[in-house]
Amino acid sequence: MSLDLDDIDGRTGGERVMRDLGTDPAEAVAVGLSHAADAGTALAAIARQILPSQPGFVLLFVPRTMDRAALAAALGRELPGIAVFGCTTAGQITPAGYENGALVAVAFRRAHFRVASLLVRPLCPVDIGDIMRQSERLSARFPATAGRRRLALIFADGLAKQEDILVAALEAGLKDLPVFGGSAGDGLAFAETFVLHGGAFHGNAAVLLLIETDLDFRGLGFDHFTPTDKRMVVTRALPEERLVQELNGAPAAREYARLVGVAPERLSPIIFAENPVLVRSGTTWHVRAIQGICPAGGLTFHSAIDDGLLLTLGRGKEIIRTLDAGLSVCDGAGHAPDFILGFDCYLRKLEIAHKGLEAAASGTLRRHRVVGFNTYGEQHLGVHVNQTFVGVAFFRPERVPAP
């Protein structure tokens, strides 16, 4: 693991700051966006947009089609001396809404943010004790400043299948710090996912960021499902592979299809997206999203699964309405967020596209000033979840009245 305290001087230059978050630019961040296929060209365009904001650090959300080696090589040239973190994605949330082929940068202004980082590698197998010790050490070396608040972000390899243990270890190590984040994606290919740290892309790894800010913020986490009366018990599983071989004593795919009411051969990502299984924890229901079908008739999942686990079939509510309600947050003075950093499951986006609601969803995201990416899983306050929108709403800096 590598542990870094990033205290970077911002650089100025470029032509303009992106001004598309809502009707006026965010005060605390600048957003850069490029649709250029060439990595160097895209990053150069983004640099012109964000450098005038004097960023302390940058988050970069990368489309699966972009040449990662070329992008990494361009970082030192286009964003010299600036700490850049991020990951590959299953889609991006830009100032225009949902997109698939955009390179997106969120530049956090040095005046409002400080950051410390930890690269966790290898991620699999997880060393729980080491992660706890490393996160405790990072927190101790990054003491809080009076009048400021802290939170943690985590970006993890979305195919390493270690997020459940990782987030639990971080929750223990960071104690009272809230942890939010998303798992890196690879479109719908599920071939390889990477996180960005120290100017390079890393597989089988995770990036932890401790962030200090003078802004007020609020964590978000919501889905659009309610439990039905259809239940199933995992009767045979390979937990380390997140593979369920049998449900209710029958081949998993066949039994799931029976409960959903479709023929097994009709099972598809959109069926999984619209008919997830839920797990109850206390009074809260969490989604355990299905990734796909194995040749032997088993089901692979995006979250931890084990023998004896009770699963309940979920039923969806109106997804645009719940999206709007979940994003409609205010600070104590009734002000809307300056911006929302969002991590939204790719299965939600898939369902929205299948129902022809992309324009409505993008309009909602744009109105609420959301920027972020589509994930292979989400991290919310110590729990790894699926088919959930997780985010952090940051509110505008307090204005000092003129004398």
Structure, described:
- The chain is of the alpha+beta class.
- It has two domains: 2-221 and 371-394, no CATH class; 225-316, Beta Barrel (Elongation Factor Tu (Ef-tu), domain 3), CATH 2.40.30.
- Helices cover 23% and strands 37% of the residues.
- It has nine helices and 27 strands.
- The strands form four sheets. Strands 15, 16, 17, 18, 19, 20, 21 and 22 form an eight-stranded antiparallel beta sheet that branches. The chain has a seven-stranded mixed beta sheet with strand order 1-8-13-9-10-25-26, with helices on one face. A six-stranded mixed beta sheet has the order 2-7-3-4-11-12, covered by helices on one side.
- A hairpin with a 4-residue loop joins strand 15 (225-238) and strand 16.
- The longest helix has 13 residues, at 128-140.
- The N and C termini lie far apart (50 Å).
